[in-house]
Amino acid sequence: MITLGNYLTVSAMLFTIGFAGVMLRRNIVIILMSLELMLNAANLSLVAFSRFHVDLRTSLPNYNAQVFVFFIITVAAAEVAVGLALIVALYRARRTTHVEDLTTLKF
Amino acid sequence: MSLHPYFEIVVFVGVALIFPVMPLILAWMWRRFFQPPKPGAAKNATYECGMESLGEAQIQFRSQYYLYAIIFLIFDVEAVFLVPFAVAFTGLPVGAFLSILVFLLLLIEGLVWAWGKGCLNWAK
Amino acid sequence: MSYFDLLRLAWPEASIVLTALVVLAIGLTNRGTRPAITLLAMVGIALAIKNVLRLPHDAILFNGMLVISPLTSLFKIVSLALAFFTVALAQSESSLRHYAEYIAILLLACVGLMLLVGSEELLTIFIGLELLGLSLYVLTAFDKIDIYSAEAGLKYFLFGSTASAFTLFGISLVYGMAGSTSLAVLAQKLSVTNAQPLLAAGIVMTLIGFAFKIAAAPFHLWAPDVYQGAPIPSAAFIASGSKVASFVVLGKILLVGFDSARGSSDWHAMIAGWSPIISLLAAMSILLGNFVALAQTNVRRLLAYSAVAHGGYTLLGLLAGDRDGFSATLFYTTIYALTLLGAFGVIALVRRETGGDDLQNFAGLGQRSPLLAVCMSIFLLSLAGLPPLAGFFGKFYLFSSAFRAGANHGLLWLVALALFGSLISLYYYLIVLKVIFLDERSTTATAPAARPMLVEVATGVLAALVLLFGVDPSGLVARIVAALA
Hints:
The structure holds 3 protein chains of 3 kinds.
Chain A: H1 4-24, H2 28-52, H3 64-94
Helix pairs in contact in A: 1-2, 2-3
Chain B: H1 7-34, H2 41-44, H3 63-87, H4 94-116
Chain C: H1 3-9, H2 11-28, H3 34-53, E1 59-61, E2 66-68, H4 70-90, H5 99-117, H6 122-140, H7 147-178, H8 183-192, H9 197-213, H10 222-229, H11 232-257, E3 264-266, E4 269-271, H12 274-293, H13 299-320, H14 323-354, H15 365-368, H16 370-384, H17 390-404, H18 412-437, H19 453-471, H20 474-484
């Protein structure tokens, strides 16, 4: 039997993998993918919570979180769009897509 | 005897592994036992027939592709909102229909803007 | 609740979106000259302020997704006013090549502010945060010529979206524990459940995103780069609007939603909860912001580090946690936003004349244009907190409410730290003023070109406002206190 805990474990693992990717990777496109992974981890836990929060009167799951997930999917798409646009802008100005090269601004 | 509910998936995974791997093993064994190695220029080419490949495999894509990807992405995700609306369409009041029209108009304005700015023209 | 009511209650936001769309459409035609677009945006914002004033006194839609109350209306007006001044700053910014798009995105960011301010539900708050954040990332990277702009934008994007992913995961955990995303229901559910590790993780992760937005140390890393690299109007809007809205919504989340998980940060009786975490953030921000600001040679970077410190001071009011404290936070952040917008106006004018915003570019400003120098000194001294300027009363109100809060003056340690920080900050603000008034003008300064009227007028008005709220703060304070009642 799969319990809420299993879903949450997977979701926490996905989130950790995504965060590790953001921290460790050097290529901005891959960092962007890791960010998506973090958002999707939140999606997974929201859907799992929704499924296990059963309303006792109607015996239906609590659908609030599923609507939330729709919005997160959209926001994630917008985030990718903005991220890609920024990468293109950076590439045109600097000819690079690596975070180590972002060093002209510092104290 | 009751099987685990996910037993079928395990079977499926097994079959999915066997189907591609078995022919590969058979082909390898055929080459091993029946075929003498006779390398030649034609045999060592990447493709024995078809076009010669040009340039490096690791190339950078033009940023033009990103623009198309971005525009596609927005219209792709729009479906997430349209499908639930379509499913519940018959039970909804007129206001809901007007709201979804406004939603579509917002997206269309984006498309018109991108078109007007020439984002859809392929820059040589 | 009919769709017509929804449209009526969300009309201020809707009218701003309409203005943004019209601005975009006009930008496509060849009629989109700068003055026309500026005028259109200003009229749109003014109409939206009028619409806010005509909203009903109290209304709640969909479990708090859209809340109309005196508090939300007041801060919608503040957000709109900040956007108005930002448009005035943008008018003469020569580096913005696609002006119509710039203004349209600025207006959309303003809608994000209004959504943030006007909702008491986590989903809408998240969407407001993202709308604001995504617009600001684009506004930061808007200058195609300046190589700093794209880099600052990308850094802001990477930090910002990581922080918002944390917030989102935190929200999902909080939802899982409470079964609702409405702050009112959340408060009710949390007060009956006892503390669970998952809930604690959820609250901490939710707070990370907001700590990022208000640039509290150690989540401040983006701020100096963005303040320095972004086009000046964008930096001004990030420093003012984004901060005000974040403090309003952070206050609502902490004091309404998570109220039962407060804990205590009194020095003699620490209790686990969000209060010790926030007090730690505040203490780190005050120390780090002030000390690093001492070493800066670029005025925009200096303002960024001082912004980190000011974020720390402002958190004191939330730590006090009562109505007085929250109103002190709101007053201070509003005053701070007006001051910083004005300071960025002066920086824009100086940059236009001397081509840079380093400290030496300000040399001799007192002789070149005395009026501008006086405005800058009003802004800087208000930030330092000298009477009779608005910053003095703001700090006084904030520190006294934190001092009185809790049993036995428990927040005394933070108040002492904040006073110490203010003392340090006086030093670096005075250094800037010394350069402005005493140093010889550098030879690189070109002959003063025709100054853009709009920026000058906006800066003057902001300076007058800072002076006015310092001499007589009772009007704004009474309004905020009445709104919180």
